[in-house]
Every structure is written in C-alpha cells, then in structure tokens.
Amino acid sequence: MSYSFNGEKLKKARVYNGFTATQLASLVGCTDRSIKMYESGKIKNPESEILKKLSYHLGFPESYFFGENIIVKDTPTHFRSLLTTPKRYRDEQIERIEIIAILFSFISEYINFDKPILPDINEDTTPEDAATRLRTLWGIGAKPVEHINFLVEQYGIIVTSFRMSTDKIDAFSRSIDNMHLIGYTSNKDSAARIHFDVAHELGHICLHSGLYEDMESLKEDRDEFKRIENEAHDFASAFLLPKIPFMVDVSKDPTNIEHYTWLKRKWKVSIAAMVRRAKNLDVISYEQYQTIMRNMQRRAIRKQEPLDDVLTTSAPSLLIEAVTELLEENVFTPKEFVDELSYTYGLSLHPKMIEDLLNLPKGILDVEDVKPKHKFKLIK
Fold first, then answer.
1. In this structure, what are the phi and psi dihedrals at residue 66, rounded to the nearest 5 degrees?
2. 57 and 148 both lie in a single domain
3. DSSP 83
C-alpha cells in the first residue's frame, strides 16, 4: 500500500464537508489554487502545518489523506427533492454514503447479515402491485406499519440516520451489489415523515435499482425524473396505506380533517399523504382534495400537522446492535475497531465520525487505551 499523500482523498473530504476549494483555502490559509493542486496531485505533499489545518477543518485524521483510494462500486444514489437540491449538497451525501458502505463491508466481515428479501419486479409492475407484493412477502397483510426502520432492517436493508447540513434533502438510497442502504435526515423527527421518506426510498430500491447509471444526467430529463419520483411516491403510499383497508377507513368521513387526524394515529402517515391517497383512489374528487388542502393551509397545519410531536417510531438499530455485539463479545476493543478499519480498508476516521454516520451511542468507540497495571500481592 502506498503511503504518499492522496489528493483525491482530500477532495473527498472537502466535498464531504460541503466546502468549495475557495472556502477550504480561506480556512487553511492558502490559495484555492493550492487546494486544487493538492487535489490534482500537482503538489505531492502539503507542508506539515497545512496538513494539520486540513485535518482540523475537515474533521479527518491526518492518516486519512494517505494511501490508495478506496473503491466503491459506482452506482446511482436516489434523493428526495433532487431537482431543487443544489449539487454540492447531493455530492456531500454521496461521500457519506460511500463511507457508510465501506463501514458496512467491514462489519460484514464479522457479522452474518441476512440477505435482502425483495419481490421480483419487472418493468411492467406498477408501484401499487410492487407494494402489495412486498407486503405479502414480508407478511404484513393489511396491518399498519408500526416501526418502518425495524421492519426494513429485519428484511436485510440497512438504514441509518444522521444530521445533514441542509434541510433540502429528506432521504436517499443506494444499492451496491447485494447491499441496499437507506439514509434519512435526523433534522426532522416526525414519525409520519420518517415512515414516508423510508418507504419512498424503499420504492426506489424495489422499482429502480440498476435501471439508471447516472442520476445527475437523469436530472436533465425532468419528465423522466419526475416519473420515477412519482413511482416511488405511489409505492410509498400503497405500501403504508394498503388499498382496501385504507379505503374502508377513509370512506367513513373522507372530507373531514379531524377524521384524517384520527387515521394518522393508526396508520402513522401524514394527513397530506392520506388525502392524496384518498384522491388517487377516487374516494374524494380532485375538487374535494383541493378544498381540504386549502383548509389545511388556512389552519396552518400543512408544514406542522397535528400529532407530529406525539407519534413515535423506532430509530435504525441494526448497525448499532452489530457494532455493540462486536464490542461486547470482545471481537474488538473500540481502539482495535478503529485501527482495523484503517489497516484493512485504508479508511482512517475519528471515532466520533463513525458514531455519527452509524447513529451509534456517543462515546461507544472511545479509543483511549487503558494502561496496564502491575498486580501486587499484599502482605497481611
């Protein structure tokens, strides 16, 4: 393995933090031209003082910037709100996803995760049919989904949540080989929003994995992009609000916002999403749908709905439990976990960064060495 300075890793760390070359240069105290030359390899090794500042401001240990590139299969990442989200925010999350994928690969060397269980889908399968097949495959029947994170993790899909530097991204998903990853922002903690965001990305995994090589180029085809986003949206609605039982429920009082509030407690789906579902199932007309939306706007409950601060759902737990198991079974000490990741995968990270990315308990990877102590036999 080469231990020379790697400019591509510097660029990845910069993008990870959402910095432009100019912004990073200002923090470090050099020119943006120097940053670009470090990244391109035209300047082989930054001075030690510059390296320390790069490490400090980017939050990566100095050792991260040395060694070979870590190869992650180039597969598209799906984002909610892609058309309205600046590219730098999307790139920032892509770098996070790549690190999470590496962390998962590392943990998978020691934990036997279940393979994903997903239905066979072809290009003629509608989102409604795909959602119904998945409910049948996972044995949900007509029941509401109580804890979507636990459910999707139970069937082999990795979920993580962390704070993002922007509210313009709700969630994202990526499929790499046989690994499916869903991530969502912890900036917003409404259970109904979490359920729909995760179900939306689950729709992308079921319907669109492997179909698109480059989401950035797809963005240029606005009609095609909107089509696949609408498909994921329709899948989420059908998965969370199965047709027959939801129609029975909503038909009892389909234009009453208080009735939808009651249904929200049962189905853990936003009022707005249920009203759209009712309209798409022809339980209410388009005019009735518009009237309900206007009433919600007038009552100031479009962005902050009733029960948003009451309903709860489980947080992602699969990776947390896996890392905890490795530590409790003494497969690794926290220091050995961090060191092995660096030695085997060439990924040097501060423990806090790993904890944030995997939503681990704070301090679980505290790597302070416990100094050995001599044992004495006391004279009595």
1. -115, 155
2. no
3. G
- 153-187 pLDDT, tens per residue? 999 999 988 776 666 667 788 877 778 889 887 77
Exposure on the CB side of residue 184, measured as CA atoms within 13 A:
24
Which CB contacts under 8 angstroms, 24+ apart, belong to 285-293? 288/254, 288/255, 291/255, 292/255, 292/257
Q: Do 162 and 125 belong to one domain?
A: yes
**pLDDT greater than 70 at residue 246:** yes
Do 153 and 45 lie in a common domain?
no
Nearby residues of 258 by Cβ (< 8 Å), 6 or more positions away: none
Task: Give a yes or no: residue 374 inside a domain.
Answer: no
Assign residue 275 a region (left: φ > 0; alpha: ψ between -120 and 50; beta: otherwise): alpha
Task: Please give the structure tokens belonging to residue 233.
Answer: 């949206």
Q: In sequence order, what DSSP letters do the residues of 209-220 get, joined into one string?
A: TTT-S-HHHHHH
Which two structure tokens, joined as six digits, stand for 206?
A: 């079921």
Residues 247 and 198 in one domain: yes
Residue 82, pLDDT score: 54
Is residue 221 a part of any domain in this protein? yes
Q: Where are the beta strands (DSSP E) in the chain?
A: 77-79, 158-162, 171-176, 179-185
- For 60, the domain range is 7-65
Q: Are residues 170 and 224 in the same domain?
A: yes
Please write the tens of the pLDDT for every residue from 292-340. Answer: 999 999 999 988 999 999 999 999 999 999 999 999 999 999 999 999 9
Question: Cα 377 from chain centroid?
Answer: 54
pLDDT at 241 over 80: yes
The residue from 278, 298, 318 where one domain ends is: 298
Q: Is residue 322 within 8 Å of residue 279, measured between CB atoms?
A: no
pLDDT in tens, 343-359: 888 889 999 999 988 88
- Count the alpha carbons within 13 Å of 236 in the hemisphere toward its beta carbon: 27
Give the number of residues written for the chain: 380
pLDDT band at 73 (very low <50, low <70, confident <90, very high): low
Number of domains comprising the chain: 2
